[in-house]
């Protein structure tokens, strides 16, 4: 019984996306080129072991590994847990520790599509300064917040440059082949001015080793750069797709302001 057309299409798509010939992928998977050709043509059905070997050789995500298994008629092997699941308590503790260590500077945890999952107090203070307090439980998508015209954009002095760089990273994420990633990119490209800056061809000369986000509100200026971390050895789809983004001050004035915001105001009550 030959594999479903979806498997053969996925296999060809990932090989071509990696820019590899059949011979190169066959060598990486330690199979013959003839066997790989038969798999791509649907003339041979892969075993469960073969699907996993090809997924490993192609270095696809755990989510896509499951999709290849399902397309071949096998049950998925990687689970996708809720971040609040009891078995992920140790990971949540690690995330909270990382965000606490980042104080008083902002840090957030987002999923693959930039939905906010967790944040530290430094991030809360930054958001409240820029856009005001949010109602508890308000869903936040960090990509929309950055690119949309009415949230962070009015306060981001170098919005064009930052968004041009950010959209490229979202475009790279669409390589996972999911409808969610494609929908996010389409949504971001639909915001006013986004396609224009991507097609302008105007690349500013770099004025530093990293691109800093320059926020301005009233007479206050904040300059920050970010780092993004992921878990090193995830065995759960949710954990593989987590991103921990930490914001660092790009100048002394920004660092001083964040530290000032973190100090509680002195009580006015008489002693």
Protein described:
With 271 residues, this protein is α+β, with helices and mostly antiparallel strands. The protein folds into 2 domains: 5-71, 434 Repressor (Amino-terminal Domain), CATH 1.10.260.40; 86-262, Beta-Lactamase, CATH 3.30.450.180. 48% of the residues lie in helices and 11% in strands. The chain has helices at 5-18, 22-29, 33-41, 48-58, 62-71, 89-102, 121-131, 142-147, 159-173, 179-189, 194-198, 237-240, 252-262; strands at residues 107-110, 116-119, 213-217, 220-229, 243-249. A 5-stranded antiparallel beta sheet has the order 2-1-5-4-3, with helices on both faces. The longest helix has 15 residues, at 159-173. The N and C termini lie far apart (84 Å). Residues 267-271 have low confidence and may be disordered.
Give me a quick take on this structure.
The protein has 271 residues and is an alpha+beta fold. The chain has helices at residues 5-18, 22-29, 33-41, 48-58, 62-71, 89-102, 121-131, 142-147, 159-173, 179-189, 194-198, 237-240, 252-262; strands at residues 107-110, 116-119, 213-217, 220-229, 243-249.
Task: List the domain count as a whole number.
Answer: 2
Mean pLDDT: 92
Report the sheet-strand fraction.
Answer: 5-15%
Strand order of the largest sheet: 2-1-5-4-3
Q: What is the tally of helical segments?
A: 13
Structural class category: alpha+beta
Helical fraction equals 40-55%
Low-confidence stretches: 267-271
